[in-house]
Amino acid sequence: MKKKVFIIGSGFSSLSAACYLAKYGFDVSIFEKNDSFGGRARQFKTNGYTFDMGPSWYWMPDVFDRFFEDFNKKSSDLYEIKKLDPGYKVFFKNNESVLISSDVNKITDTFENIEKGSGSKLRKFLEQAKDNYELAVKDMLYKMPGFSILELINIKTILKFNLFLTNINKQVNGLFRNEKLRSILKFPVLFLGAKPSNTPAFYNFMNYADFGLGTWQPKNGFYDVVKSMIMIAKEQGVKLNKNSNVDKINIDSGSVKSITVNGKKLDCDFLVSGADYAHTESLIDKKFRQYSDSYWNKRVWSPSSLLFYIGIKKRLKNLNHHNLFFDTSFEKHSNEIYSEPNWPKDPLFYVNLTSKTYKHTAPKGHENCFILIPIATNLNDSEQVREKYFDMVLDRMEKLTKQKIRGFIDFKRSYCIKDFEEDYNSFGGNAYGLANTLLQTAFLRPKLKSKKVKKLYFSGQLTVPGPGVPPAIVSGKLVANIIKNEGIIR
Ligand SMILES: Cc1cc2nc3c(=O)[nH]c(=O)nc-3n(C[C@H](O)[C@H](O)[C@H](O)COP(=O)(O)OP(=O)(O)OC[C@H]3O[C@@H](n4cnc5c(N)ncnc54)[C@H](O)[C@@H]3O)c2cc1C
Question: Would the pTM of this model clear 0.85, i.e. be above it?
Answer without folding.
Answer: yes
